[in-house]
Amino acid sequence: MENHGKRHGGRPSTSRRAFLATSAAASLTAGVAGCMGGSGSGSSEPVTYISNNNSPQFQEMLTGFADQFEEERGIEVDIEFTEIGGDYGQRVSQLIQAGNPPDIINAEQFRIGAYATQDILRPVDDIIEAVEEEEEEVQDKFGFVYEGANRLVPAVSSVTNNWYRTDVYDELGLDAPTTWEREREAAQAIMEADNDLYGLGYTTSATVYGSYHAWCRLWGNGAQVATRDGDTVEVALDSGANRDRVREVLERAQQMVEYSPTATNWDWGEIYESYAGGTTATAVYSGGRPKTQSIGQDREWADTTKRVNNSYNSSNQNSSLGNSAATGYALLQGSDNPEGAKEFVQYMVTGDRLVEYARALRFHNIPIYESWYEPGSAYREGWDYLNENFEEETIQSEREALFSDNTQPFTAETEPANPYASPAFTSFQLGQMFYDVTEGGLGIDEAIDQAATTLRENTGME
Amino acid sequence: MSTVSDGVRAVVPTRWQRKTNGVLASVFERDKTLLALCLTPALALFILIALLPMVWAFNLSLYEVSTLSPIWEWTGPGRLVDIVTSSGFQIAFGRSLVFGFGSVAFQLIAGVGLALLVNKEFKGAVLARALALLPYLVPAVVIGMVGQFMLNAQYGIINLLLLRVGVLDNPVAFLGLPETAMVTVMIVGSWKFAVFVTLLTLARLQSIPEHFYEGATMCGANAYQKFRDITLPRIKNVILIAALLRTLWMFNKFDIIYIMTRGGPGESTTTIPLLAYEIAFNQYNLGEAAGIAALMFVFLAAWSVLYFRVAEPEQEVRVA
């Protein structure tokens, strides 16, 4: 690592390696680490990649890419498969702390800022340029720029979808839940019409999905989490007119939970399961799982499931603002084979490999190239799953939403991008704020103050 | 002597046999050498898997360390004071006490009760004892996931049953409400570990001579008197040791809570281990998380010393 042992603010600092050197006991650990490899820095070392998808299908696909790559370029790639979520972050941090970072990691737009602010990501502008030459232009919204350089090579993205059951909505003569008011009217009518079906899943939980849902709801009322003043990124939740917007969202949350099952501990799985399982008629989601799970479970409402954009408060907004969350690859500083890693990432996000990868995601994550949505594209041509299960209207509606200016990553609240959006997201404070006012017994102003204070203490924002 | 050993003896030169016998004799005759030989493997393991990580965590807690960066920046012991005085730590500590002691109370009552039950002689008693110990074989991850599934408000069997028999009018999200989440996790998490108490207690119960009870019966003692004067004094120490061990383990418990609630709803089941995890992997502050872990160790060590001093579980109680 280039900045090992660097001193900050006159206080002594040390790296793990320095500590090991002075600790007799820890020399055993160093010995074990040495046996695990990673001592060289030349390009003869294999490229190391920690994948966040360990399903058999992905293992087979990615291993196939690696074998093919080695055959074509003569560069070996070692892939370690872990599970997405906590396990992945733990494994990556273990390797970083051990002074043996992998070359390639999977990165999501709403998490990458946490890596970037630690100065551990290599610039990837040259990869993006090469990819653009081979494919087409990569829109800025799918990348992540930190200190003037791109740090994420996007592969696919997801978009905020407000999935709803048209069979239920049509039967009750309800409008699609595009605005807050329509959403509330529909939820109420559904609850009154059928005791076994809730209007929607309105999550107020301190989880990853809870954070996502809360942030989308704030955007639905034009509220922001952060703002920028020059080089300083500030928490905006409790400031001026923005605070009033946040307050309105939380008041709304207090009403809407009445039409939802208790969702105070729901994460991604619970929200799509509640929809696919027939408990709720509407679900906000990043990506297509409520629909793809309904298809997978052979539900009768799989075909009648349609999407609209993130609902908005029509009394002060003219249009929706939703989230795009690209996922892709990042390269870590201090790894052994950065040049090989660049080649392999470029290899994975171009040509047939990307088509295969994107198809494996079953239209939950969707392509970042607009031409791929054309019926004759390599992505769509001959792919029965998509063409048979998704109406053209839904496919094009997702495309339109993804490439619209009204869909942005959470980092885009500030210009340049807010690198602290990641720790703000993963601190779960937004979901916690929603929980506090709906189930936790806190007053709205108290909850806003608490969330803002905690974000200032823990994220790097002021 | 078998033919095989005779054969081996025949091919090993006599001077080797003498030499080997001499070495072994000297090892077994010297107490210190024998002691060192027996203790070394256990001691090496203890150092590698317990002491080193502990020293590591204590050292780490004195530095500002991001989970995603190998740079360690010295902060000093003041960091531990900051942690102790922070409201987040204090609230989580309170929850850990509730979870730890509440779970142990449940485990002792259920565990001892079960041991007394299966200790009785009846047809199929051996099978009943074997079945009673089965939960201990199930991994905590499985218990957590199955528990979560069974308690689900929409499709969980517990809600379905309670609705069917009329106990509930509406489904209850046991793990989604702050009033019920902690108790629910405590019960699900304790079900398996109550068997640990059963194991220890049952072993002790079976060592109580039957004629003690026969004598008491002849003296006119009723069932309660027999339990109070014969059984309880003999299982008391086992219960105290079980209580100490279970308190240490439950205070440290992470898996079952993480699987079932991830510390929620809100933060209502965020105990100290979950707080440390959250700070390390959601807030990326490894130094502070290590500080929390170090403080947890200090508390548990102090608790163990106090417990041994006050309860004296090592003392054997003798009843005339």
Q: Could you characterize what this model shows?
A:
- The complex is a heterodimer of chains A (462) and B (320).
- Chain A is α+β, with helices and mostly antiparallel strands and 462 residues long.
- Chain A has 19 helices and 14 strands.
- Chain A has helices spanning 16-22, 27-35, 56-73, 86-97, 112-116, 125-134, 166-171, 180-193, 208-220, 240-256, 268-276, 289-296, 338-348, 351-360, 384-389, 392-403, 421-426, 429-438, 444-459; strands at 13-15, 47-51, 77-81, 104-108, 145-146, 149-150, 153-165, 226-229, 232-235, 282-286, 305-308, 322-331, 366-367, 407-408.
- In chain A, strands 2, 3, 4, 7, 10, 11, 12, 13 and 14 form a nine-stranded mixed β-sheet that branches. In chain A, strands 5-6 form a two-stranded antiparallel sheet. In chain A, strands 8-9 form a two-stranded antiparallel ribbon.
- In chain A, helix 3 packs antiparallel against helix 14 (351-360), helix 10 packs across helix 18 and helix 11 crosses helix 12.
- The model of chain A is unreliable at 1-42 (pLDDT under 50).
- Chain B has 14 helices and two strands; from the N terminus they run αααββααααααααααα.
- Chain B is globular.
- Chain B has helices spanning 3-11, 14-29, 31-60, 78-85, 87-119, 125-132, 140-150, 157-164, 178-205, 210-218, 223-251, 255-260, 272-281, 286-311, and strands spanning 63-65, 71-74.
- A two-stranded antiparallel sheet of chain B has the order 1-2.
- Chain B folds into two domains: 4-60, no CATH class; 80-311, Orthogonal Bundle (MetI-like fold).
- Strand 1 (13-15) of chain A pairs antiparallel with strand 2 of chain B.
